[in-house]
Amino acid sequence: MMMLIQWLMVAIAFFLIELAYFSLALRYNIVDRPNERSSHRRVTLRGGGVVFPISVLAYFLFFGWQYAWFVVGMLAISLISFADDVSHQPKRLRISIHLLAVLAMLYQVQLLAAPWWLVPVWLVVCIGTINAYNFMDGINGITVGYGAVVVASLWVANRWVPFVDESYLLCLAAANLVFGFFNFRKRARCFAGDVGSVGMAFALLFPVLMLVKETGEPLFLLLFAVYGVDAGLTIAHRLLKKENIFLPHRQHLFQYLANEFKWPHLRVTTLYMIVQALVSGLLLAGWRWLPATGWWLCMMAVLLVLVLLHLWAKAYILRTVGKK
User: Fold this and answer.
1) The pTM is what?
2) Domain count, the chain
């Protein structure tokens, strides 16, 4: 009972911080204005996801001062992301700080001690995951909904094989609940902004890497499988069309569902949550009860099914709406 009250107080504190940020955003006009690339039609406050890095900082200050290098990386990547939300920052500066932040996180997880040739691989995986999470933040509820599935999956795994302080996951869950109150709705009161999507990606990637380090199983990166498939295949599709993949677009599957098929945002979000929950459930169940070889074969089959479903769905939508 006391623990429930404690976490209720944490959530209330995050809720008040979020309201204070709304006043700041209104005063300084930190808003997201609709354009031809947007999936929304109303001017909406941007940067409400600032509660995610704040939750990490709160964990660090009030729960034992743990994971200092990771927290330094989180503050760095969140500050440059928030600055970009307020006023566009140079690409080289953003990339440089992202690189330094990821290096700090890898140092915290002790993955920099891996064979030298693995370090660039981890850098590519981490930076790619963070950017994919950022790219996928385009409709109401998707960042908070997907984040809830990942946090819940990590909490279950942590119960079986402890790899991260549970209070860290609970702080993230509290922040996610608060942001979801304002974002997981038909008319979102705020959007995450880069500070939210990048911050949440960084905050989730850290415990996933901790789990990978603890178990020696990179397969746990499939806790981001649905986002990875959508982002990866969309990039490949755009490259085939010889498009500049760094320019904004509306070609992710979730965007086609929301814009071309006119599905309500929360229906699309719920679909992504359910699919990732199924993948995560199979991943964790296989890890728990299958032999290693069978587990890997099972998850490779699941990944192949995800890829084929994505390709079929996107091709069907493009044929239906007459796009190439």
Assistant:
1) 0.94
2) 1
